[in-house]
Here is the input.
Amino acid sequence: MGGTTWFHPRACMIHSASKSVGLMTLQSIGGSDYFGPVYWSVTEDLGKTWSEPEPIFSLGRRVLGGDLQEGVCDVVPEYHPKTKVVLAIGHNVYYREGRLARPQLKRYPVYVVRSPEGSWSETRKLEWDDPRATRIYSCGCGQRVTMENGDLLIPLSFGPKEREDRSVSTVLCSFDGRTVKIKRCGNKLHNGVKRGLLEPSLARFGGRYYMTIRAEDGRGYVTSSDDGLHWVEQRAWCWDDGEPLTMSTTQQHWLVHSEGLYLVYTRKAKGNVKVFRWRAPLYMAAVDHESLRLIRSTERVVFPLIGDGINEAKHVARMGNFHTTSAAPEESWVTVGECLPADGWRGDLLMARIRWSKPNRL
Here is the structure.
């Protein structure tokens, strides 16, 4: 998609008896963490063509007074089979004078519902009165798990007013096609370095649950659970020989297919040492789900680094905000909005097709 510099492209599949439709949410970017209103687009031919993006009016801007505005960002849509709606969850954000307002007021998840007929609901807040989350609680950018009975497992990053560093946990929620309500909360995981643990994402594979977590200590983290609520202590992502990956405060996401569990991520490499937070290229690798390590021999480049990541790194498109979608039994997608701050924040919206010839094989 040309013209507007689209960012945060995240897609889900809407299945019916007659066809499967892909729906993607996206929004423009015009500065550091400065996003426009949320739009949506659909594809009926498995991503070959997409409709012209249209605004979700309830996820637009709201003037609070003076020059302060409230918006929504980091939206993730998912189809909910039991109620046949799309639930799109992001979080609120505050802007002032064309940039991110500092300090931010309290931040929390907000969501909208798209009916089977295609209309979008008004915005609702995910209510949580936990005293550990008086400053922020967020599931922005995070992958969640939909249970067979319609309940949702949602990962949260949260923190109180007294601390800068955040913790993560999961909440089990009911959803009736209209309202999300928290029923139970899992145990807390914590890392006290800088902003702590951020942007957790969930996957379910082989009857077990997995969570990958962004951090700010040069690592990304992984943990697992039998029930999605009781998590073992997080450990740094490592290769299968035990060598830890060097990461830099950037999210990772899961890609689940048949008998294979994969991770999509960024990391430090020889050719990207001067790229901001090493946010190019974008990699994927198979996960050994017993040891919770990445199998080095399976690593592939999803989106290559374009340009010189050492001498002209400011002109290399960053790809740290992305999403994965299981589009069909034989095909998965990775969507990303390129970002070139030094070149007017321009960039293209990209979609990689990952085609599977056999289970667990690219």
Observations:
- Residues 238 and 247 are 11 Å apart (CA to CA).
- The first strand starts at residue 6 and ends at 15.
